[in-house]
Design a protein that fits this description.
two-stranded parallel ribbon, globular, disordered N terminus, mainly alpha, 21 helices, 2 domains
């Protein structure tokens, strides 16, 4: 995003540097990750008690219709007694999200160099890490990332697959691509209410766009609507959904949910625009695109009417907030806000690209007039670097890594596991954790022997319960 015509390679490298700044600590921290007492053990404790398929059926009928999320959570590494597998999962998840962003950027800007594409991903990743609501819930707590981060990635993968399907000739590859697209829709809908609404809006919106704007009956899009209907039936026919949605009197109140969703979206949008260098990146992005589009041919993926983009953009953000208010009557959790911010950034820069592409194609403004002198670009680059220095998220993840908090957390938990396994009692009392890196840590074990987490952790280790000692007992 930070680019000049005189020395493009240096600005591309600057952007890639931002990618390293955002990704490196996340990847390192994944090497210290552990399963959380919140939910991660309970899924596997249920498997050990009732069997793999019966455990999933119990969650589907008693708690939630997220059939794909249930499948993934009950397949977490603890099912084979591999707690270290959570480290690998988080590491691969971060790389997977980054690579899918690259694939999407490559489809939209096919003539760009690899360095420029990675530079684009660097800017997006930097902004995302800078202001995301909960890093732990995005990449390290499996029960959360399976429900939001994974389906977000699958949604972007679906977009890439759809773009490629329309370019393929008839044949086996095209058929297999259609099957993959259908499976992705099925998987995303079965992950969470938030992603269910996003993918339905995209599928139905694309079919409507083909019908109304392009005057074409798209059988492939229509078949995907059928997949949506079938998947939604599986999701909403779950008895568990009824139990969850009946827990708050404000749930299922459409006017309340719509008003609160709009208010929340406005509040979040103001925060993301004013408390990040988003406007700095946007100005550099616009100038760079004006030069790029001025030297390249027509881009069909950016020739969408602006009003369509605006409706889709607002719709995708709104439908992520609405289920929280409509389903259980409360504002979205940090893991949901992460997802909203993720699509906010993607939609923001795509919307700007559509606008610039339209202006350049109409020859409303000469590309020569879209220009920042080097001194201005240096100032803007400095603002980006300053934002990194004062970012609470970056300070947290680098502090957890470089100050050893994450390593100490990893060591303490390994020692705790060994102590539990060596204990001869049915109820094991463990010391509270002293190191609690906020990028990885969500909660400790519970001091109540009858608490669900105590029983779930105990069940995993073959004990009746694993209980946290009161803090005063652990003091010398």
């Amino acid at each position: 995003m930070f680019k000049t015509l005189q020395k493009p390679i240096f600005q591309d490298l600057f952007n890639v540097g931002l990618l390293v700044v955002g990704l490196l600590p996340l990847l390192v921290l994944s090497l210290y990750n552990h399963p959380s007492p919140i939910d991660d053990y309970c899924y596997i404790d249920t498997v050990f008690k009732f069997g793999y398929f019966e455990a999933m059926n119990a969650y589907y009928t008693g708690w939630t219709g997220r059939y794909f999320g249930i499948l993934l959570n009950h397949s977490n590494p603890l099912v084979v007694k591999w707690a270290s597998g959570f480290k690998l999962l988080s590491f691969l998840l971060i790389l997977w999200q980054t690579y899918v962003l690259y694939l999407l950027a490559k489809e939209i800007f096919p003539k760009w160099s690899k360095l420029s594409l990675w530079g684009l991903i660097g800017g997006l990743t930097f902004l995302y890490v800078l202001r995301m609501s909960s890093i732990a819930e995005a990449f390290y707590w499996m029960a959360a990332f399976v429900t939001y981060t994974v389906p977000n990635i699958l949604t972007l993968t679906w977009i890439v697959v759809m773009i490629r399907w329309y370019q393929l000739p008839q044949g086996t590859l095209k058929t297999l691509t259609a099957v993959l697209a259908s499976f992705l829709v099925f998987a995303v809908i079965g992950s969470s209410e938030t992603n269910l609404t996003i993918i339905i809006l995209l599928v139905v919106g694309w079919w409507g766009y083909q019908l109304i704007i392009n005057r074409r009956w798209d059988w492939f899009a229509f078949i995907l609507i059928g997949v949506c209907v079938f998947s939604c039936y599986l999701f909403f026919s779950s008895p568990g959904n009824q139990l969850r949605m009946s827990g708050n009197p404000e749930g299922r109140n459409i006017p309340f949910s719509a008003i609160e969703s709009i208010k929340k979206l406005i509040k979040l949008g103001i925060d993301w625009v004013l408390r990040t260098p988003l406007l700095v990146f946007s100005s550099l992005w616009i100038v760079f695109l004006s030069k790029t589009f001025g030297n390249q041919s027509f881009n069909r993926l950016l020739s969408v009417p602006l009003w369509v983009v605006l409706i889709a953009y607002f719709g995708i953000l709104f439908v992520q907030i609405f289920p929280s208010y409509y389903g259980i009557g409360i504002e979205p959790a940090p893991r949901v806000v992460n997802s909203i911010y993720f699509f906010f950034l993607l939609g923001w820069f795509y919307m700007l690209a559509v606008m610039v592409h339209y202006v350049v194609q109409k020859n409303w403004l000469s590309a020569k007039k879209w220009y920042f002198p080097p001194s201005i670009k240096a100032v803007l680059a400095s603002l980006i670097l300053v934002s990194a220095l004062f970012s609470p998220n970056l300070r947290m993840i680098y502090g957890d890594w470089l100050k050893g908090r994450a390593a100490a957390y990893d060591t303490e938990l390994k020692e705790r596991y060994a102590f539990i396994e060596q204990s001869a009692t049915d109820t094991v009392y463990v010391e509270p954790l002293h190191s609690k890196p906020l990028s990885l840590y969500l909660d400790d074990a519970n001091p109540n022997p009858d608490h669900l987490w105590s029983r779930c952790i105990g069940g995993y280790f073959g004990k009746k319960a694993v209980v946290l000692k009161p803090s005063n007992e652990s003091k010398p």
